[in-house]
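Sorry to interrupt, but I need a hand with the structure work. Go ahead and set the record down below:
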Amino acid sequence: MSGFEQRNFTDESYRGRAETHTIDTPEQVGLEFSVAGVGSRFVAILLDSLIIFAFFVAEILAFVALAGAATNLPSGGSAGRTAGIWFAAVVGIIDFLVVWGYFALFEAYWHGQTPGKRVMKIRVIKDSGRQITLFEALARNLMRVVDYLPGFYLVGLITMLCNQRSQRLGDLVAGTIVVHERTDEASVLYQTSTTLVAPVGFAEQGVGRETVLPWGQSVTAMFPADAVAKLSGQDLVIVETFFARMLDLPMETRASIAYQMVRQMCGKMGVGVPEGNPERALESMAYQMRSSGRRV
């Protein structure tokens, strides 16, 4: 452990760079995010727009095919007209959900990414570093109609150029930012859209007991259950935020942050800092907290 370099990640040199956003956690640990610029976001929205356009083209073709088939059927009178009205209503609802729900649902349930954002390796997060909720995704995307004015996101573009974090109006309303993400490596934690999946009963495992998770990863309980119980939901947020962002960090910085977090968490628990990879210790803390029913 003594080999890990210690640094002050709240240094003003990090704050002064327009292309980055640094978050100071309650544990006095700074997490740095690379803010996505206009170029990558423009390409992402273009790709998403093409996907939506392709859907509408497919819908029109299907509608033409159905209309052609309907002309060969005997007239249904008022019943046929009623069915046509209902069909048009259903199509209208689907189109509304596609236009307004595409971005919000993808961002809320697909790690803050739409297909376009995933291709460009960017994603939406809260300015606090955590993943966005459905409400926040809806809020930022309802403002999209204003950002679009007077044509193809001119208001949004001007707003992005006027602030250091490249936030459009929807981002400012929802308190979100769009950041770059590395996807060439896999995270050590298996995550859903908001939380990691904890093995059942892991919190009660004896110290040093290894458990193989359903997806093949092995994890060891490194701390007594009564010690982990001293950690709060906010501590879990900090650990999960680190794992969500660690692939964006240089290895040296990542190791130093992990060491600082382990040292401070162990201080709260009243236990010694374990030897070995500090990320494994953080992983064990997170799984033990989640398994015991801890919520954030």
Observations:
- Strands lie at 20-24, 30-34, 122-126, 176-180, 210-212, 218-220.
- Residues 38-70 form the longest helix (33 residues).
- The chain has twelve helices and six strands.
- Confidence is low (pLDDT under 50) at residues 1-18, 183-195.
